[in-house]
Design brief:
Layout lengths: L2 H13 L2 H20 L6 H8 L10 H6 L9 H30 L7 H5 L3 E6 L3 H14 L3 E4 L3 E6 L5 H23 L1 E7 L4 E5 L5 E14 L5 E12 L10 E6 L4 E3 L2 E17 L5 E4 L1 E2 L8 E6 L7 E6 L6 E4 L5 E5 L6 E3 L2 E18 L3 H18 L4 E8 L4 E8 L3 H13 L6 E2 L1
Antiparallel strand pairs: 1-20, 1-21, 2-3, 3-19, 4-18, 5-6, 6-7, 7-8, 9-10, 10-11, 10-18, 12-13, 13-14, 14-15, 15-16, 17-18, 19-20
């Protein structure tokens, strides 16, 4: 054989080896776990801030995590290469083993002599007064129980559960389709997380910069328990498909909440989080001013605030801090001393000589928008694999019978690819149902 062809044959055999496939599955499972341990698709600054001072596992700082593509595991080149390798291994295994096994199961095997049957895993020889009549009776009995039959003058072949041979092929095909869907979703999927205040609009654009859909937050509410802890968030969204010819009346108003996402034109909108967007402040007799809030993680996990000057020259600032849209809003001076507490919608309180009133607090809805074109393939892959797994549980049974009229004997033999012990118990019972119950010899 040509050396290059021989090398290629050995390489393909190694790639499709079951042990290699199992090793790949274990490796993919381990690396998939990395995506749950390391934050995914965040800004580079976050990885430097979190891991430079405290390297992950004591080894990987921000630069190494970015270099190893651990910030986007599921769309990284090495993870996709592992999926491609596993998919190729499954395809080659199906071509080299499962497809020939299915073809062999569909092909009728004709055993012509009792000696051939005696070499099978299961073999019985029955003494009969009329072997041909017993063969006919066995044919009728097997046909009534759903066996496929091939009859000759003095012998027959029967089989049942051939669909079980299709199961492994479907499992492999389903896994390949699933991996294609996962890879497609990782490469072509979109993910966007934004905080919207009521009345604000989020425009989703396609690759050409054209509007695909506009999402307007009409209302946002937070349900809290008696202790003030948030229990549920819900947003009322107004969705309008993009395009210049889209009439305004085609907009849809839908409500989402935690664990109740919205699916719209291939996009899924999740209620992911909440924040405080702005505080409405009135200084003395001034108009109500809506001032944006910013997060202060150094003061707590969910603390927002704004720094306001109390003098025309910008000096003597105070910090207004709050952790809930219900308040209270606490005012601090530059020395972190508490100056007063204000209730949203309540009366004004004098802070550093200025009457200060909090008219209201504007909460923001944290929306997570995901578009994954590979989801239909992933679901289809799961369905195909589960169907194949169910079919694989079906035992494929084959049975042959030869009548020796001159010796008054009926020879029966059988094979089964799984649960052979059950078939070994079934076969004598099957023969015992024949009229006249021939005696075993």
């Amino acid at each position: 054989m040509n050396p290059p062809l021989q090398f290629l044959k050995r390489l393909l055999a190694w790639i499709s080896d079951l042990r290699v496939a199992i090793g790949l599955l274990i490796l993919i499972a381990i690396t998939s776990g990395l995506g749950t341990l390391v934050p995914q698709k965040e800004s580079e600054a976050l990885y430097h801030r979190v891991y430079d001072a405290n390297p992950w596992l004591g080894l990987l700082n921000g630069d190494r995590i970015l270099a190893l593509q651990l910030d986007h595991v599921y769309s990284s080149s090495w993870f996709l290469a592992l999926l491609a390798w596993l998919g190729l291994a499954l395809i080659l295994c199906s071509i080299r083993r499962q497809w020939p096994a299915l073809q062999a199961a569909l092909r009728w095997i004709d055993y012509r002599t009792p000696r051939q049957l005696s070499k099978l895993t299961l073999a019985e020889t029955m003494a009969c007064a009329d072997a041909d009549a017993s063969l006919n009776q066995l044919e009728q009995l097997l046909g009534s129980r759903g066996w496929q039959l091939q009859r000759h003058s003095d012998r027959l072949a029967a089989r049942r559960g051939v669909s079980g041979r299709v199961g492994p092929l479907l499992v492999h095909a389903g896994l390949v389709v699933l991996m294609v869907g996962a890879a497609w979703g990782g490469l072509a999927g979109q993910r966007l997380e934004r905080f919207l205040a009521p009345g604000n609009v989020l425009e989703l654009l396609n690759s050409r910069g054209q509007s695909q859909v506009s999402v307007t937050l009409e209302d946002f509410g937070i349900n809290r328990d008696p202790a003030g802890r948030p229990e549920q968030f819900h947003s009322r969204l107004r969705l309008l498909p993009g395009g210049e010819d889209t009439p305004s009346g085609s907009a849809e108003v839908r409500e989402i909440s935690v664990n109740h996402p919205l699916r719209y034109q291939g996009m899924t909108v999740y209620q992911a989080d909440w924040a405080l967007a702005a505080v409405q402040v009135q200084l003395g007799r001034s108009p109500v001013l809506e001032l944006p809030l910013q997060s202060f993680p150094q003061l707590g996990e969910q603390v927002w605030g704004i720094v306001l000057p109390t003098r025309p020259d910008g000096s003597n600032p105070v910090l207004l801090a709050l952790s809930s849209e219900q308040g209270p809003v606490t005012a601090y001076n530059g020395e972190a001393q508490e100056l007063g507490s204000l209730i949203p919608g309540g009366e004004a309180v004098e802070i550093e000589g200025i009457p200060l009133r909090i008219a209201g607090v504007v909460p923001a809805s944290g929306l997570l928008l995901k578009r994954d074109p590979g989801v239909p393939l992933v679901y289809a892959g799961f369905a195909i694999a589960l169907t194949g797994g169910g079919l694989s549980l079906i035992a494929t049974r084959q049975l042959w019978a030869i009548a020796e009229a001159e010796h008054g004997r009926l020879h029966v033999g059988g094979l089964c690819n799984r649960n052979l012990s059950a078939f070994a118990r079934e076969l004598p019972g099957l023969l015992a149902e024949l009229p006249g119950a021939p005696q075993q010899v």
